[in-house]
Amino acid sequence: MPNSTSDNEKTFIVGPETADCTGVAPMKCLQVKEKESDTWQNFYTNIEGFTYEPGYEYVLKVRTEKIENPPMDASSIKYTLIKQVSKTKK
Fold it and tell me: What region holds the DUF4377 domain (predicted)?
């Protein structure tokens, strides 16, 4: 497997606070963006292997995998932590 960044790798910036959001039910969503200049987006699923701690901004490298036949209320993409690049107190 080549060691280059492939289409299924993304860098996420995770914000220091969660936001109220509604998926199947009201819940707390991570605030995520891919570039510093983007606006925060609600992230409705979790990132496998990542433990969120409020008050920190994270830069994460994640792998995305397409899920065949996902449950109705679930994401069609599975996110897995490759590496936590940074964790900054906010």
Answer: 14-87
